[in-house]
Design goal:
Blueprint lengths: L19 E3 L6 E3 L4 E6 L5 H9 L8 E6 L1 H6 L14
Antiparallel strand pairs: 1-2, 3-4
The structure holds zinc ion.
Length: 90
């Protein structure tokens, strides 16, 4: 069966099998090298209270959350966009 992509959709091939991660949206298990990783800062307090506390001089931590998305969910959520057919990598 012919391959759709020479690299199999992974940026660094020839590394063997990588560990799997779960997609944050659909729960699908995807290889870590193939999944798209996103970090977002989550605030622990409400935005209005956050501003008040910041003006008062308080230091509030904003921990970052790491999320992985499979390719189809990343495209659906506009995290990555599809390349034009002429500029697609093979
Ligand atoms: Zn997904």
């Amino acid at each position: 069966m012919p391959k759709k992509r020479k690299s199999g959709g992974k940026p660094a091939s020839h590394k063997g099998q990588s560990s799997t991660v779960q997609c944050a949206n659909c729960g699908r298990f995807v290889p870590r090298s193939k999944a798209k990783q996103y970090t977002k800062n989550v605030s622990l307090v409400d935005s209005r209270i956050y501003k008040e506390l910041r003006d008062a001089g308080a230091i509030i931590q904003r921990p970052s959350q790491r999320a992985y998305y499979c390719i189809s969910c990343a495209i659906h959520k506009h995290k990555i966009s599809q390349r034009a057919k002429s500029t697609r990598k093979t």
